[in-house]
Amino acid sequence: MEHRSDTPHAQQLILGRIRAQGGGYARGQVWIEGERIAAVVDGEPDPAVLAGQGGAQVLDVGEALVLPGAVDAHVHSLSHAGEGVVASTSAAAGGGVTTIVEMPFDGPGPINSLDRLRAKQDLVTDEAVVDVALLGTLEPGGGWRRAGGLVDEGVVGFKVSLFLTDPFRFPRIDDLELISVMREVAETGSTLCTHAENNEIIKGLLAEATPQRSTDPLTHTRTRPPVSETLGVLTALEVAATQGASLHVCHLSLPRSVDLVRWYQSQGADVTLEVCPHYLAFTEDDMLTQRGRLKINPPLRTAADREGLWERVEAGAVSVISSDHAPWPTELKDHDVVLDNHSGVPGVETLVPVTLGHAWRRGPAAFDAAVAALTEGPARRYGIDHRKGSLVPGKDADVIVFDPSSDAAIDERTLHSNAGWSPYHGHRPGGAVTHTLSRGRLVWSAAAGLVGRPGDGRIVTRSGR
């Protein structure tokens, strides 16, 4: 993941444990010049070299780990008016996320036209604390014809849904139109990501369950059985394979879904997948205590499913781990009737500590795979790995420090999302982010808090754009 080189003149030096060439983590040096990585060097700095740097700032983090900044491939900043780009990117900074891939299903209107895209670009330029890559979407009824123009204007890819969440903000692309969508996205050379759940199964089960007004939180899991996910995944995979599209399947909750993606990969299809920390940390039984706050689509699954996902993370089968940050306020999550609640949880600030803390306890294979799925995996999938995702000279100096020895509990009162709550409140993941640098600038630290400001972040586009 990291590339070694000779030490040039640099302005900053970070000392800590870095990924060793032979595996594991050992003391090393990350040198930064301006906004870019200048060098990554094993071992302790030569005092003569350090003296010759002309007063380079030195941050020595001891035995903590120095890692690439995370790329959160699934963030909804504007689905709810109460959040916004300032809050979501501040939360990202506080959690070691230096780039967010921003979803296009905004409350005022989905990002499916050049006018809406340009307005959002202006908003992000004014408000982002860390860097942002933007997705567009393609509405039903021929929206795929706009794909090329949106890519030319700077989107890194597209997202569509195979399930009808909202006819305006989050509509469904049916199977027939999905063929045209996949074909056109393939022509642009970008990536299509999908919410892959079978519409007919879920809508039918919801039609039966909704009138019952059940307060049993597991009603939600019963209306979205495993087959509703796997059929949706299969539809997306088969259409992508036949159309030659680059496909990324979002927020998978089942080991079987991961295996389906792996099979298509073995056939040569350009397909990847993501899982989320809530599927790696919770099970459906946690809904009995957190109730509607853990209503997520797809739903939480069994303990065996959770373990199966971790086994696939360890095996390197999971390309991306993302938050699916959906910062609904508590008034939309605390209804007694579970189906009345909005689906999704805030998570961009807890993505890194929860994922890496759990992975560290499982061992080196899980930890290395989790780091890759938080950094280089999403950067590569969205074509921004020329700047993001690894500690390589010439790339952006997006650097975080992770302390696996920390036993700190997550406190929702200190988080930066305007949601004001977290499903991980009180959880001790087994590690903590202590520093976040975005393009060489400290934007958050445990000691100083949030020091990044709106406007510090920039829009990131695909390589060659």
From TrEMBL:
Q: Which PANTHER family match?
A: ALLANTOINASE (PTHR43668)
Which sequence ranges form a coiled-coil region, renumbered to this chain?
none
**TM ranges:** none
Question: What lineage does the source organism belong to?
Answer: Bacteria, Bacillati, Actinomycetota, Actinomycetes, Micrococcales
Q: Mind telling me which Pfam families this protein's record contains?
A: Amidohydro_1
Protein name per its UniProtKB record: Allantoinase
- According to the entry, every stretch annotated as the Amidohydrolase-related domain falls at 65-443
Write down the superkingdom of origin: Bacteria
Query: Which Gene3D superfamilies does this chain map to?
Result: Metal-dependent hydrolases, Urease, subunit C, domain 1
